[in-house]
Specification:
Shape: globular
Oligomer: single chain
Number of domains: 2
Number of helices: 12
Number of strands: 21
Structural class: alpha+beta
């Protein structure tokens, strides 16, 4: 089991990348706040994982020409086609789709679900609100009559976020009657599912109707045959080249990350200015806790804490794996960090380190992923 893990830092010198709306406590009609969370006594701005994943998805669509799953909407739900054979993003980002199988409603809780191989944290400000947040007050005055006052929050901070991509799960789709694991439904799976339920007659009707709604033959079976998908009883496996392409492009997209709110006013570059990348043979991300932290208003890097953590994880770090540190020189200079000192501290823990630009580090890291898929 191999996971491509990472940490990213995004520089937001004057930005408002994810908005909350009007704060409940504000008496001002025209006031917009950024999203915030509380930790202890401190309040931090954050970017929701939904927003970050949306940026990631759009970047893959724009720069890597991914075949993106169409969106469907009901009164209270939005969902994709739930077809990871045809659509790259359904594979990597997961889905939940409950087809209408009887009288316009979903019967017996049937749904196709897939746990996303790509796990992400929110992007959280390293600096608390007292050190990063500003309330901008202005007036709209381009119209006739009195100017209209407005207030808007924005920040000057650095966001950190972590991710983990399950390389074994990419391109592998389970047919197991369990939440998160019924990625697909096949005619051959129906008898096996019926053994697990009480009302077999009703469930059989629902499952057969679901296959019809899915358009199984045309939308799933035929594309799978054309691609050379290995079709087993409880699992379908995409060809190695397809799996490798989807996994590597997911990571490569990081250096071209595009998105964020208020870009016309603040024009923030959301590409990472610092990355840590490491392959781990366990579902562990060693970068989630406070490797990067605030101290007296400054952003610090705790290389000793990271070295100790990696030393504890050496038994699940592949023998030839390296820790890749990618950085923008201007960004690092502004923080006063010494990358060579960080590298030396980590190598003392027995983990080889490679340093370079964000682009070169991501590209070198991706070569390890390619090698894993053969």
């Amino acid at each position: 089991m191999r996971f491509a893990t990472g940490l990213v830092l995004i520089d937001a010198p004057a930005s408002a990348l994810n908005m909350f709306g009007k704060p409940a406590e504000s008496a001002e009609e025209n006031e917009v706040a950024v999203k915030k969370l509380k930790k202890g006594r401190n309040i931090y701005a954050y970017i929701s994982p939904q927003a970050w994943r949306y940026w990631w998805r759009k970047t893959l669509e724009i720069y890597f020409s991914w075949n993106m799953s169409p969106l469907f909407r009901t009164e209270k739900q939005v969902f994709t086609a739930a077809n990871p054979i045809k659509y790259d993003d359904d594979d990597v980002f997961g889905y939940m789709w409950a087809p209408k199988t009887e009288r316009g409603k979903n019967e017996q809780g049937f749904a196709l679900t897939r746990v996303s191989p790509l796990k992400t944290t929110p992007l959280i400000s390293v600096l608390p609100a007292r050190n990063s947040l500003t309330l901008d007050e202005g007036y709209a005055s381009r119209h006739e009559g009195d100017p209209v006052p407005y207030r808007q929050e924005f920040y000057s901070t650095i966001f950190k976020g972590a991710f983990s991509l399950d390389l074994d799960a990419v391109g592998r789709f389970t047919i197991v009657y369990k939440s998160g694991y019924l990625n697909l439904l096949t005619p051959e799976a129906i008898p096996r599912i019926l053994e697990l339920v009480s009302d077999k007659k009703k469930k059989e009707k629902v499952l057969k109707k679901a296959l019809e709604v899915m358009n199984y033959e045309e939308e799933y079976l035929e594309p799978a045959k054309q691609l050379g998908v290995k079709m087993l009883e409880k699992e379908w496996i995409m060809p190695g080249e397809v799996r490798k392409k989807r996994a590597t492009e997911t990571i490569l997209a990081l250096r071209l990350l595009t998105g964020g709110a208020k870009q016309t006013q603040y024009h923030t570059d959301v590409t990472p200015k610092f990355v840590l990348l490491l392959n781990v043979d366990a579902g562990i991300n060693p970068f989630i806790s406070d490797i990067v932290f605030e101290e007296s208003g400054e952003v610090k890097f705790d290389s000793e804490a990271l070295a100790l953590r990696l030393n504890d994880l050496r038994d699940v770090i592949p023998e030839k794996a390296r820790l890749y540190i990618g950085y923008d020189k201007g960004f690092i200079r502004s923080l006063g960090w010494d990358v060579e000192e960080i590298k030396a501290a980590i190598e003392e823990a027995g983990v080889q380190v490679s340093t370079g630009s964000v682009k070169s580090s991501i590209e070198e890291f991706v070569k390890e992923i390619e090698a894993y898929y053969g």
